[in-house]
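Whether sequence alone determines local backbone shape is best considered at the level of individual chains. For completeness, the protein is quoted in full, as a sequence line and a line of structure tokens:
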Amino acid sequence: MNAEIAVDGTDLEIIDLLVRDGRRSLAEIAAAVSLSAPAVKRRVARLEETGVIEGYTARIDYAKLGRPIEAFTELRFAGSTKVADIAGVAAGLEEVDAVYTIAGDPDALVHLRVRDLADLTRVIDQLRRSGRVTGTKTLMVLGAEVQG
């Protein structure tokens, strides 16, 4: 179990600014939180060292990469299936962005990015052919508002 790290309101403001734009400069953050850039640098370093900030990422326009369709597929498994086996069902499928194992029904939620409906069908069929999936339900994303 992870120990909770003590953060104050300024740390939370810094985290929020970095979530919204991970490339924001220390000077910009410092101005927003009324600290010096070196003070912000120390706080960010502490947040990184303690694991509060795990890394930085880029937002991608997948349509420009030929994968404009985004969907979530619910997966159901036999009750005897181990959680670790559920997470591995999509191993090797490049269209899979993430597999979330969840409590309740369904057992997992798979985030997909595909070229077209034929590609979506192929990926879902591939998940079903794993031999462990007992049922699926797919929801296509019509739009998304990113909150960070």
